[in-house]
Amino acid sequence: MTQDFNIQSVAIVGAGAAGLTTLFELLHTKKDGSTTIAYDSNGEIDKPKIHNTDPAFTKIVSFEQNSQVGGIWSPSFDDPDVIPQELFDTEKYDDPWVLKPKINVPIEISVEGQNYSHSKPLVTGDVDSYNSKWAKSGIYRHLFSNVPGRYLRTSFIPYRQHRPSNSLLHPLVTNYEVTDGLLSFVKRFDLQRYIKLSSEIVEIIKVDNKWRLTIKETSGDKVRWYTELFDGVIVSTGHYSIPYLPRLPGLSKWNANFKSSVFHSKSFRDPSIFKDKNVLFVGTGLSGLDILQYAFPIARSVTVSRSVNKQEIYPWLSKAAVSDGIIVKPHVEEFKPDENRKIIFEDGTSIENVDYVVFSTGYHWHYPFLNEKDTGVSVLTAGHKRVPDGSSMVDGLFLNIFTIRDPTLTFNGVTLTPLKWPSFEITASAIAGVWTNKTRLPSSREQLDYSDKKKKDVGQNLVYHYYPPGFFKEYVEQLRGYLPNGRNPSDIYDTNHLDDLKNSFTVAENLFYQYKGGRLPITDSAEYLQGNKL
């Protein structure tokens, strides 16, 4: 069996939805492995009752590389991340280690006897040649959710139905509503005081049975470097930061010749750019079709490049991707920028005069601040790919959470499911229960056997982490025994409104065809949907 833990100080990497949920859970976990989290008769947090007089974790710090909390729900509407031409020129823009290499720690930090702390840091200039943080959100003004608002919240955030059930959008919500709920949660429980902003974790190593974090805190053109020791670390950096683009012949030259004509869906902001243009969408997942619905009614032509007969994550997406008026092509073979803006496909066909290319090809799992030697954690390439990509999996974890080699390092946000925020909460709760020795993990051998069996069953790819709604219940049951005393999955995972999920797919499909057909206005669509009914 695994050892007892003596974890008092905890570092949380990231202050998005997963990191903030983890912070709240740990703050309300007691030394005896119980929780102070309590709910009133309305099922909402009973604030007067949750004060923790005997906390299990005496020091909790959340490090957020952005200047504000929220992760992807902290929008950068007018200043998106883009892949710079110098990275295209490497012809390795599909490699996460090229997109975001490990940051070199100043040599002074490693000098024996030196002890740079938050109060006495090493101060340098910012030497980044370009914005390599990839910290900006991919959210744009028009974005509305693809799952019900009920499941874009934890039990710590009250559920509010903002519009009638017969509105165009219900049970979906706008990005503004999600962000507001998260920021209100932080303010209500004064979580900001546990969070260090503009603080990027650049290295995590094990030193004398502690995790030593090296932090790069940016303030204007100055950087403050320091180290801090913790008993436990929870990585909550999410999966929507570093965009994946496939490496394709001619793409880097195309981007150089026609600036701003190639972009990942993370960089999309303004639908009006597609007016009277010929647009190619590479990939037809949720984000690709979300953008396509705005492009189709105003573009001169819309072409999609996708795997032949591919089944998307939801059935309606597969049909929408090949619906009337869309030109459907297989994978791209080559870009020919000097031949009338020509793009050739694997079947030998081609299109010309392409104005915009939108890649909806997923994101990288990437942890440049970790090393496999200390952690046993790595990102596996899927199938016969050259490098890890958007279809990869994170290896070395038990139940997507606990590092098998050293469970004092954990992850929150690796589990993929439409019930995303409940998964954050139950993950955080399981970590709290295990770290307070309320229960024990299986032996490392049993954990490895479980992982190996699952790899054989589903493959060494992204599916390893994915739990559709029907399977998420099984995952919850796997974690039930690890939760702190007093924590009940029924408080976390709302099974009474799962029909909202089914309804949300119908609403999303209906909205897609209304936008695609030009029957809904594009300008300020999120606000428009708030007040209009079916």
Structure report:
This protein is of the alpha/beta class. The protein folds into two domains: 9-75 and 102-138 and 177-242 and 364-490, FAD/NAD(P)-binding domain (3-Layer(bba) Sandwich), CATH 3.50.50; 251-361, FAD/NAD(P)-binding domain, CATH 3.50.50.60. The chain has 15 helices and 21 strands. It has helices spanning 17-27, 85-88, 96-99, 107-110, 175-188, 251-257, 286-295, 315-321, 372-375, 420-435, 444-458, 469-480, 489-492, 499-516, 525-531; strands at residues 9-13, 59-63, 122-125, 195-196, 199-207, 210-219, 222-230, 232-235, 262-264, 278-282, 301-305, 327-329, 332-336, 342-345, 350-351, 356-359, 378-380, 393-395, 397-398, 402-403, 409-411. The protein has a five-stranded parallel β-sheet with strand order 4-2-1-8-21, covered by helices on one side. Strand 14 (342-345) and strand 15 (350-351) form a beta hairpin. Helix 7 (286-295) packs parallel to helix 14. The mean pLDDT is 93.
